[in-house]
User: Fold L-alanine-DL-glutamate epimerase from Atopostipes suicloacalis DSM 15692.
Amino acid sequence: MNTKDVIKQVEIQLLEVPLEKPVSDAKVIMGKQTPLTEVMLTCATITTNDGRVGFGFTYCKRNGGPAQYALAKEYAPLLIGEDPNDISRLWNKLLWSSISIGSSGVAVQAITPFDIALWDLKAKRAGLSISKLLGQFKDEVPCYNTTGGFLQDPIEKVIDNAQKVLSEGAGGIKIKVGQKDYMKDVKRVEALRKALGDDVAIMVDANQQWDVSTALKAGRYLDQYDLVWLEEPVGALDVEGHYRLSRALETPIATGEMLTSFEEGLPYLERPAFDVCQLDAPRIGGITQFKKVVERCEEKRLVLAPHYSMELHLPLVATYSNDVWVEHFEWFEEVGVFIERVEMNNGFMKVPERPGIGLTLNEERVKSLNVATDIFN
Ligand SMILES: [Mg+2]
Assistant:
């Protein structure tokens, strides 16, 4: 068995992907953030001595993208000359190289593009898609749209957006809530439910803007609309608050997108303190870490609905045996970041059969998005 692969070159790129229009959730409405206008991507392309190539990326919304890139620039040379098959060892080598800044957040998110590129490489070497390599369970995955339900749009516009994306194949609609006067949110949810009928899956997302008692009161109203979940009703690190709400409300409680390592997710996963796990592979350090999340979710029979990054999460959740959702964001497709597009029909996304993670940067388009490139040999 020949496993004498050696990493010859690592190229990293920082891309700035603009949004067609700025978007606002409850964090903006409550004055904590400005509207989101772009997403920063740190990409890694790893090439081996025999010319095999793996690609991976991590992302950042608002500030922090250049920090992820700066640390990735320190990590990249540590991979030269290494065996790309030793993914676990290399993940730990990178983490330990920067351990004095911690083992979550930027420290692991800067590992993510390399980790994903190494898994991409391994799957391509085996001639398999990443979901087949990890052990596929599903050929298609239910998906819901988020981008039409932000708070800057009046409810009439949200309903139009929802009808459009449902006709394009989405299987559910997420609407942002979390306003100080939660009855305003309840009215928006009621109007959406009325307009879409009883059969459409609806999720609501408060983006951490309530306290437990407000979330309880709002949640009791929301319980009547048969929602798939209530997301981030309270602060992202409030395990006890989420636990109490998941026991008190009929609507399942979702959270996890703001957690920045597998270990930060453990208090939720072990108890469990949520019904729907939304840990996000790029935010917690890539596929090596996300595999552990999938195993914990299996044990507790949770719903797995990772936040954002549909291009990556689609094949990853396809390995899960219980209920899953993928979050549909058109942002990268509008800009044309990747050559490939997701196939969405009748409420489902088709799990790609392409080798590896099945994503290729659209080099022509990327030229205008590129902020920095560094190559290590
Ligand atoms: Mg959310």
User: Anything to note?
Assistant: The mean pLDDT is 96.
